[in-house]
């Protein structure tokens, strides 16, 4: 029997709250973000899962979320691998800008295309397709083999790095993934078949809070 893959988007960051493009910038979690991470960890504790290994990005908002979740499930010392392959999408020249200011500068339609299209990247940054191009190989080489070997694996990462993974796992089209939003701090529990396809998926929280 294959193992279990749990994906969690980090809790609300300080720049989420300020409506800023974040990307590879490194703000911490807000009080609400800390609470969301705690609630995600509590949901996983109630679910009864024990992890064999955890993966996260090298950005503090995901690392802190990972730490909080592992503390809540009673595994604070679990081996955790940090890799920039799981980092948020790089927003390039948009990073640090208020989203409303960006709309004034470049126009509503252009900013919407940069945010929501599959393969159009902002100036100096990555598209969702570009993000997937680094996330997918890392998943295939480092994460998936552990799940197929029967391990229970936690991945705490970001909205776009996880969207690119969910796109593959849930077999979403380009159009479907552009409309996908992941709620902060809400665990998605996947059980995989031996051929790496999804046997089941459970969401341990309220995805309607996604933004």
From TrEMBL:
What biological-process terms (Gene Ontology) are attached?
gluconeogenesis; glycolytic process
Tell me a Gene Ontology molecular-function term this record carries.
phosphoglycerate mutase activity
Q: What EC number(s) does the entry state?
A: 5.4.2.11
Indicate which residues the UniProt annotation says bind substrate. Answer: 9-16, 22-23, 61, 88-91, 99, 115-116, 159-160
Q: Which InterPro entries match?
A: His_Pase_superF_clade-1, His_PPase_superfam, PG/BPGM_mutase_AS, Phosphogly_mut1
Q: List site positions: Transition state stabilizer.
A: 158
Q: Where is the active site?
A: 10 (tele-phosphohistidine intermediate), 88 (proton donor/acceptor)
Q: Which reaction does it catalyse?
A: (2R)-2-phosphoglycerate = (2R)-3-phosphoglycerate
- One Pfam family name is His_Phos_1
The record's keywords, sorted A to Z, are: Gluconeogenesis, Glycolysis, Isomerase
Q: Which pathway does it serve? A: Carbohydrate degradation; glycolysis; pyruvate from D-glyceraldehyde 3-phosphate: step 3/5
> What enzyme category does the UniProt record give?
isomerase
Q: What does this protein do?
A: Catalyzes the interconversion of 2-phosphoglycerate and 3-phosphoglycerate.
Note the subunit structure.
Homodimer.
Similarity annotation: Belongs to the phosphoglycerate mutase family. BPG-dependent PGAM subfamily.
What name does UniProt use for this protein? 2,3-bisphosphoglycerate-dependent phosphoglycerate mutase
What organism is the protein native to?
A: Hoeflea prorocentri
Annotated gene: gpmA
């Amino acid at each position: 029997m294959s193992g279990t893959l749990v994906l969690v988007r980090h809790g609300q960051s300080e720049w989420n709250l300020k409506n800023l493009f974040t990307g590879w910038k490194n703000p911490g979690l807000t009080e609400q973000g800390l609470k969301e991470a705690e609630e995600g960890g509590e949901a996983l504790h109630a679910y009864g899962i024990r992890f064999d290994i955890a993966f996260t990005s090298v950005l503090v908002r995901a690392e802190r979320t990972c730490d909080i979740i592992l503390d809540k499930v009673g595994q604070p010392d679990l081996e955790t691998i940090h890799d920039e392959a799981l980092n948020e999408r790089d927003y390039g020249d948009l990073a640090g800008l208020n989203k409303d200011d960006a709309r004034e500068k470049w126009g509503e339609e252009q900013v919407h295309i940069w945010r929501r299209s599959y393969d159009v990247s902002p100036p100096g940054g990555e598209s969702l397709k570009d993000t997937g191009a680094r996330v997918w190989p890392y998943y295939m080489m480092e994460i998936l083999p552990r799940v197929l070997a029967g391990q229970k694996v936690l991945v705490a990462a970001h909205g776009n790095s996880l969207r690119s993974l969910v796109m593959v796992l849930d077999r979403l089209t380009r159009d479907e993934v552009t409309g996908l939003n992941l709620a902060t701090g809400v665990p998605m529990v996947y059980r995989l078949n031996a051929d790496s396809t999804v046997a089941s998926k459970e969401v341990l929280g309220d995805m309607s809070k996604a933004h």
